[in-house]
């Protein structure tokens, strides 16, 4: 493996670590929204419930996109590593 190929793999690995951080942050956001929704159950705030549902849907969609992008990028990294 050339130095250039190793540098590229190292960069790709660093990107994958950051993508994992992003996934974890998104999961944390979803969990926190869930906690707030449970807390709101007792006080019945329909307006906030409605807005939180929008955020939850978007956060879940974003998590799915991040997971798919990360998996595709990891496969690309693995192909590069196997070719080297």
Automatic annotation (TrEMBL):
This is Uncharacterized protein.
